[in-house]
From TrEMBL:
GO terms for molecular function: geranylgeranyl diphosphate synthase activity; squalene synthase [NAD(P)H] activity. Pathway: Carotenoid biosynthesis; phytoene biosynthesis. Its cofactor is ATP. Belongs to the phytoene/squalene synthase family. It holds the Pfam family SQS_PSY. The lineage of its organism: Bacteria, Pseudomonadati, Pseudomonadota, Alphaproteobacteria, Rhodobacterales. GO terms for biological process: carotenoid biosynthetic process. This is Phytoene synthase. Keywords: Carotenoid biosynthesis, Transferase. It comes from Loktanella fryxellensis. Gene3D superfamilies: Farnesyl Diphosphate Synthase. The keyword Cytoplasm does not apply.
């Protein structure tokens, strides 16, 4: 058994999951020290499998409710008999992982199951906080970093990465009936959600929306850099590499003229190696350069709850009211009983069984 309680066999399985399912993180993780890399691989494997089940499964609602049950079992010390679950339960025990962090991910995936739309950029950031920044906050816990300023910058990085993913996948998402662009952007352009989803095609309006997302991501990437110096010295290279590799995806979208509808931006192994080399130089600078004032900027309002949770020295035993309400709505959907509701990101029409 390893120092963090993950069995070698389970860890090997998690490594394989990431090697095939998340090439960018796998590349960056190779630069992390073993004491951080191994639990990080286990964390990402659990999150990857959970995301895939919701994203690719036929019954998204059931997938979210299964994830709820899996988290309950993991926090009870009785994980599902699967490598990812056993490894995640070991992380919970070894690092006193605040429950609010994986619950945030659960809530974001529940929003996906609800086919939620996001009216404003702030709403999109709220979604990104849950499905990406929560993972960044959990990474801080694995590194035993509880400084609020450092966690806030890690959350900036998570939101920036998710905005990059959204910008890259506009066409792919639309063809699957998913929409993460702010709906007020569509309205301002005289477009309806249904029209966009029924016939996604590149054009000046769509390209401007992708550009706006990447501009927002750029701002957050720059803010995130200040926090890397607050991480353990041995972990900085891997995080710098992750920051540059994900930003590289956005740069590829730009080179394609912001057309992420007919083309999906991809980066090569050679490019990743180049960004890793650049990361080495930037890592050296963290030891000699003073920390910029943005290090102490207030967290994004959408991630403040994550910063608070990750900064605690003990994990909370119960789910938040917001998460419980979201899960209750999904449970009603699963049983076929629904009312018309309104959610933070905009109205959602739900049915009541006869």
């Amino acid at each position: 058994m390893t120092a963090h309680g993950i069995s070698p066999a389970d860890l090997a399985h998690c490594r394989d999951v990431i090697r095939t399912g998340s090439l960018s993180f796998h590349a960056a993780s190779r630069l992390l020290p073993g004491r951080v890399r191994d639990p990080a691989l286990a964390l990402y494997a659990f999150c990857r499998v959970a995301d895939d089940e919701v994203d690719e499964g036929r019954d998204k609602t059931a997938a979210v409710l299964r994830l709820r049950d899996r988290l309950d079992l993991a926090y009870a010390g009785r994980p599902l008999n699967a490598a990812e679950d056993r490894a995640f339960a070991a992380i919970i025990a070894a690092y006193d992982m605040p429950r609010a962090l994986p619950d945030a991910l659960l809530e974001g995936l529940a929003w996906d199951a609800q086919d939620r739309r996001y009216a404003t950029l702030s709403d999109v950031r709220g979604y990104a906080a849950r499905v990406a920044a929560a993972v960044g906050a959990m990474m801080c816990v694995l590194m035993q970093v509880r400084c609020a300023d450092t966690i806030a910058r890690a959350c900036d990085l998570g939101v920036a990465m998710q905005l990059t993913n959204i910008a890259r996948d506009v066409g792919e998402d639309a063809r699957e009936g998913r929409l993460y662009l702010p709906t007020d952007w569509l309205a301002d352009a005289g477009m309806t959600e249904s029209a966009f989803l029924s016939d996604p095609r590149p054009g000046p309006v769509q390209c401007r929306m992708v550009r706006r997302l990447l501009t927002e991501a750029d701002t957050l990437y720059r803010r995130s850099e200040a926090g890397i110096a607050g991480l353990p010295a041995s972990a900085r290279l891997g995080i710098w590499a992750a920051r540059l590799i994900y930003d590289g995806i956005g740069r590829q979208v730009r080179r394609q003229g912001y057309d992420s509808i007919t083309r999906r931006a991809r980066t090569s192994r050679v490019q990743k190696l180049a960004w890793m080399g650049q990361a080495a130089g930037l890592t050296v600078a963290t030891f000699v350069m003073p920390r910029p004032a943005v290090m102490y900027a207030a967290p994004l309002p959408e991630v403040a709850f994550l910063v608070d949770a990750a900064g605690r020295q003990t994990r909370t035993p119960a789910r938040s009211v917001a998460v419980l309400d979201t899960l209750a709505a999904l449970s009603r959907r699963e049983s076929g009983h629904f009312d018309t509701g309104h959610f933070e990101g905009g109205p959602v029409l739900v049915r009541r069984s006869a």
